[in-house]
Amino acid sequence: MTTHTVPDAAPIPTGVPGLDHVLSGGYAANRAHLIEGRPGCGKTTMGMQFLMDGVRRGERGLYITLSESRRELLSVAERHGWSLDGVDIYELVPPELSLDSETQQSLVHSSDLELGETVQMALAEIERVKPVRVVFDSLSEIRLLSQGSLRYRRQVLALKSYFLINDATVLMLDDLSAEDDDLNLHSISHAVVRLEQITPSYGTSRRRLNVIKMRGTQYQAGYHDFVIQQGGVRVFPRLIPGDHHRAFVPGVAKCDVPALDLALGGGMDNGTSTLIIGPSGAGKSTLALCYLFAALKRGEPALVVSFDETTGILMQRAVGVGMDLSPYLRSGLLRIEQIDPADVSPGEFSGRVRDAVEADGARLVVIDSLTGYMSAMPDQPYLVLQMHEMLTYLNQLGIVTILILAQHGMVGRMDSVVDLTYVSDSVVMLRFFEASGRVRRALSVLKKRTGPHEDTIREFKIDGGGLRVGEPLTDFRGVLTGVPVYEGERRDLMRDRGTDGAA
Q1: End-to-end distance of the chain based on CA atoms, in angstroms?
Q2: Which label site among 114, 257, 351, 404 has the fewest CB atoms less than 10 Å from its CB?
Q3: For residue 361, what pLDDT is reported?
Q4: What is the pLDDT of residue 116?
């Protein structure tokens, strides 16, 4: 193992994906950091990741545990697929919690010891191992042995001073068993990171963290979602659009349906978002597929975030309209993220989009659809704000974004679970209408910030050959009210493909 050579208080990696970005580089070298949260929030996992990252860098790590046995820690590591080789584990727990005969030499009855003896034994182990990184799990046992806030603070100060003298970077874990003492710990810690676990009325538990303080560092304030998955904790930093900007070539994304591009004023401009709204079954996803398929044929990487359909159904439906996506999915040009809205947080959602854009170079993003996502998540005003930040981020990178939002109802007055028209650069509305005894579809563009667009209403059809858009129709009434009525001539409407020679 190497000796500690990092400059004093310089950032060192945390070993937790995404957390370094939140902390502007990582933990501060040779300082004591408080990681606090209720049991089950992920404190132990974050501590292990910190020590294992040190081992990979040739730094010696020490895990001092007063709450869990070595056997339990190894079990946690095994479930994550980790090896703790190179990490020293020192237990201060009753021997009945560990049946491993190889570790009996370090077992101590902490409940039978005076506080001073317990602390001195921990310090002696640090002196013996001389670690660069230390995890102290947890301060709750020290609090119980102290039987008083003054004595508790004195002992934690002694630990902190000893860590500093020995040039160790330390994570002190605390399970918030006595929140009255929080300020005692906060004032003597260089940094405080609080982990929280929230259980909604429906769906899986969601976790988030908040950096309460970190001296001398311009960290990212606010809440950041994180998950505990196979392989450890992963943090999704809160998206701040102002931190992401790159120059891009202005241009227009076109599809293979010229009449559709014409309705949109030439196509979808780079760095803009287009919202497609309409009732279920009106053709919103198929319209988005037209631009997705054209982008893939041009060799542009693309992402589809699917909340409503499985990947298999999406692929099957695309083949049904003459757009086989499977070659592009196999080649990696297309990435499909299938998401259960009840099991994902806003931060994880934006994190997956960022991965596709920053790692895979996606140039077109389709989100299909926002309806289920919005319905399954609480605090909708915050979700709209989060969506606004993500669209601003994508626009600044020159990405073409297509949002699909299903409206309640099939005919008549229609409402959406949330209003996203103001955050979108373009809005395309789809409607059903009746003419000559048949149900047909109409398309109209209501808004485009970046240039002119058609103010007409066009009929469109979906069949095995894809999507067709007809000529502008003038004899419509009631399109915007949700009950369109066509009063024109039947000959102006589109005929089925192949019945009259029409393409």
Answers
A1: 73
A2: 114
A3: 94
A4: 72
Question: Hey, which bits of 99-157 come out as E strands?
Answer: 133-137
- Secondary structure of 361-424 in the HEC alphabet? CCCEEEEECHHHHHHHCCCHHHHHHHHHHHHHHHHHCCCEEEEEEEEECCCCCCECCCCCHHHC
HSE-up of residue 317 (Cα within 13 Å, Cβ side): 18
Angle between helix 139-146 and helix 115-129 axes, rounded to 10 deg: 150
Q: In 223-285, where do the E strands start and end? A: 223-229, 232-236, 252-253, 268-269, 273-279
What band does 5 get if pLDDT is binned at 50, 70 and 90?
A: low
Q: CA nearest 346: which of 375, 387, 285, 402?
A: 387
Domains annotated for the chain, with CATH where assigned, are 11-238 (3.40.50.300), 251-430 (3.40.50.300)
Tokens of 281: 């079954």
Q: Is the pTM of this model over 0.85?
A: no
AA letter at 302: A
Confidence label for 160 from pLDDT (cuts 50, 70 and 90): confident
Q: Which of 412, 285, 372 is nearest to 336 (CA)?
A: 285
Mean pLDDT of 258-282: 93
